[in-house]
Amino acid sequence: MQNYGMTHLWAQGDFVTRSIALTLLIMSVLSWSVIVVKGWHVLRLKRLTKHAEHAFWHADDMADGMRKLGHGAPDDNPFLALARAGQQAAEHHHQTQPQLHDRMDVSDWITRCLKDTMDDSVAKMQSGLAVLASIGSTAPFVGLFGTVWGIYHALLTIGATGQTSIDAVAGPVGEALIMTAFGLFVAIPAVLGYNALTRANKATVTKLNRFAHGLHAFFVTGARLASTQGTLRVAARAH
What we know:
By secondary structure, the protein is mainly alpha-helical. The chain has one domain. The protein is built from eight helices and two strands. It has helices at about 5-10, 15-50, 50-55, 60-70, 80-95, 105-125, 130-160, 165-220; strands at about 225-230, 230-235. It has a two-stranded antiparallel sheet. A hairpin with a 2-residue loop joins strand 1 (about 225-230) and strand 2. Helix 2 (about 15-50) packs parallel to helix 8 and helix 5 runs parallel beside helix 8. The chain starts with 5 loop residues before the first helix and ends with a strand. Residues about 225-239 have low confidence and may be disordered.
């Protein structure tokens, strides 16, 4: 029995068998790296923005709201990026009113800037998911190819030696089937990780859309934030 297993498969395998095993190993490392990195990012973003958005809308003014939203948050915090983009868009539109740029409605301009920032944030959240999708869909077939290749060589050995007993074929065929199990071992975590990260990203995008709509209304109406008895009050700026 000591002659069976992955060690014996690697020692007795040819270039193709070893290449398939290395390919599956690289796929596994890549998928787990993406799952760990993206999972940690999702958890960190969820924890940091759990109360930051509420604190932003209950801030005394925009400067205080930006400070609370960015307190302890990572540089790639999409909520903070949206707030900055909305503020910069409103200031830029106000400063360029005498120019041709003023022909664009302030609502359209802010909407466009917020949408661009939203698209950038969504693209960052989705980065790496294509790797998981590709690995999850191709790893079983890579493992199956390794199995077919191993069984092919086992049949060649049987034909050369003329031995067809169970003892003679169980080892080579069993080792070949290990490649299929290895492919599934690589594919299943990738698929589960892809689905989990996709659901988490959809929840974050929903929050971002709600936050962006609030920012759009705030900057377009020229309102200021004021907190009264723990509730949000929107008061129009005096003209």
